[in-house]
Design goal:
DNA polymerase, domain 1; 45% helix; Rossmann fold; alpha/beta; elongated; 14 helices; 6 strands; 2 domains; six-stranded mixed sheet
Length: 288
Amino acid sequence: MSPLLLDGMSLLFRAFYALPPMSTRDGTPTGALYGFCTLLLKLLREEQPSGVAIALDTPEPTFRHVAYEAYKAGRPAAPDPLRSQLAAFMDLLDALDVPVHRAPGFEADDVLATLARRYRDAGQHALIVTGDTDLLQVARGPIQVLFVGRRQKDHVRYDEAAVTARYGAPPERLPTIKALVGDPSDHLPGILGIGARGATALVAAHGDARGILAAMGTLTPKVRAALAGHEDVLLRWEDLATVRDDLPIEEPWAIPINADAWSKVRELFMRWEFKSLLDRIPAQPSLL
């Protein structure tokens, strides 16, 4: 058994967009909550984890926003039916009584990467569950990442070999590929003139951004022209794309969900009219 490390807001957003609108009889939106709870119960049943922890973003600007004002610019605000469920989501996390990790100035990705490093350094397995491909860069050694797709159906489980097979580069080189190609979701423009195939070839031959720049004299004229004058920009994009794994996260990192917690969750399910989920609460909750 290994701990389950959940990307809280990413999964809540995925749940909101995966399901048709839902509400209680008085009109209170509940679709995102229902989707998240359904996924959590499924994971607990299938994975039988040794513990659970949840990572959340904080409202403060992150170091990435400070370094690059346009970072994630243009992302639409959460729609009202989703925002109205955030307080109830926090009630759920309180009821579960598992560690909720945050780090002002950093993203939930950085928190999860730090937890992953802690478990990896201890030689322990862990499973990160997220809807953010940035976390695939931590799928190394005993750490796996379960990527939850947009419809919550196309879940893909990644270990190091699976990441390498998909991207043509090992997990730790994904930030360099992203720096070269760009990422519209984070508003990182990349390097004009270098596409995915070229980026993969550069990473395979030279490693990270510094290795590529050190080999500038051996690159093709087209690639040299694309990179010329953008050396500092490439290093900057790579740094922004790299998840941090050195945050001061306090223990306990993950703990089991106990019987008292499940009793509180049952009360929330009744309030939210999740009757179909009541019989999915573990019969022996102290084991999860």
